Amino acid sequence: MSLALGSRLMAGLQRLGRSLMLPIAVLPVAGLLLRLGQPDLLDIAFIAEAGNAIFANLALIFAIGLAVGFADDSNGAAGLAGVIGYLVLDAVLKTLNPDIDMGVLAGVIIGSVAGLLYNRYKAIALPDYLAFFGGRRFVPIATGLAAVALGIVFGWAWPTIQAGIDGLGHWLIEAGELGKFVYGALNRLLIVTGLHHVLNSFVWFVFGGFEGATGDLNRFFAGDPAAGGFMAGFFPVMMFGLPAAALAMYHAAPRGRRAAVGGLLMSLALTAFLTGVTEPIEFTFMFLAPLLYLFHALMTGLSMALMQWLDVKLGFTFSAGAFDYALSYGLSTRGWLMLPVGLAYAALYYGVFRWAIRRFDLPTPGREPEGETVEAAPRATGERGPAFVAALGGAANLNSVGACTTRLRLVLADAAAIDEAALKGLGARGVLKLGGGGLQVILGPIADGVADEIRAALAAEGASAPADASPAPADASSAEAASAPSEERLARWREALGGVDNLTALEAQASTRLRVELADETRLDVAALEALGCRGIQELGRGVRHLVVGPQAGALAAGLAKA
């Protein structure tokens, strides 16, 4: 059953937000090199140019990063397709209209297209005389052709689109304090859905121009004295306000339980202060006290407006933490004013949070009912992936596993099958159910590593049968029936395989695979198979495919054979 349009749109935006994190992750090293090489620090030209090389090619980097991020298996072929697509699109646009400069948006658009084309055509089968160009090799070709078409479309339409983007950007920039307030408040409010990355990409990389650099972040490091206004206001909140809120939660906990939660809250506060990663703190009160979170969002907007009014300009390449503050201070305008503003924010946040927690008896860390307290049990890294798989409803419940900076971004077969208590015991600070099977688990900076461990656990489970699997009972049919998939699910499998008449042979192999022979390979629906839990497809030629489906292989083969 297809998702509703709204759910599909949300899922697409979620994936875009997650994928943007891959290219953005390279910016800290670029900013570090660019800053250290400047005359007022090390004064080494080649170090500065090394950092500038990354900023000068951001559109290409975004094309690669978005393509890999959108690809279901993050395969390098998608990244190559992103490069091909961007180079073709750029060449077509320069030929049609040399004045067009799509900037980073060109990389975002063509990278997304390349990733989506990879998912659609990575397993395409061509006639024997063209077989060399089938599968993943077909994706760069398709992306190049798509880039030609997009170049023609944008060559005609982009001047109008650019005028609209420029108009919005100029309004935000020229609206002064009001524009900064709107941006700051929206940035925090959108964290609930994870779409703040999409908003940030326009503000930091698109709006405004200075000597070829676009976006507030790029212009700041290019030396634009007017840039930095869309970043400065985050520093008082992230370095002072939210750490003070964590301190208020600590002091609000009963004395006998402070030791149990002190390490957690202080680590969250230190992470926010040093790096500007604040979501783990925010999710400790976002749903417990929505009005308190609204206060936080409005105070972020107010901080942006206040720093604009004080003419403070600061920048960052990762987030508004102490590390970025120290590195960008030499390029700042009146950057010292952030410190007194930050101290005032610390006092305000501490007072408001301490009062609200006591006044409304909020169950912040340490104040939960005794029986509901779940402490994160330390686990060896190798044990964490399987533990998360189990807490998320098992391998068969996981259709897609991804992550951004601070959260797992998942698509589940059944979101109701998760064990939220177990997830909190594994360190989750919050769980968001987004509809259409979408789920986000807020973990902090370890999210990407946990996602890799989950994928490794899934691969290990699908590679072979469990070592301690017991022998099949004498009545194998009854065992199969006990684990047999529903008729509705079998019907979806048959449809994804191209229909009953498309299956010329079918059998389970190696406990975790289906071997299928197809009459017409083009009728195979790869996307539908992946949605059903197929973890990989191996092409063996002449219509033969191996589908990696995990321990359900035997039950699936038996059910499909009955048709």
Q: Would you kindly provide a written description of the structure presented here, covering whatever features stand out?
A:
The structure is a single chain. The protein has 563 residues and is α+β, with helices and mostly antiparallel strands. It has helices spanning 5-24, 27-36, 45-56, 58-70, 76-96, 104-121, 138-174, 177-189, 196-205, 216-221, 229-232, 234-252, 255-275, 279-282, 290-309, 322-328, 338-359, 381-391, 420-425, 447-463, 476-483, 487-496, 526-531, 553-561, and strands at 209-210, 213-214, 398-403, 407-412, 430-435, 438-442, 503-509, 513-518, 536-541, 544-548. The chain is globular, with a radius of gyration of 26 Å. Residues 371-375 and 463-482 have low confidence and may be disordered.
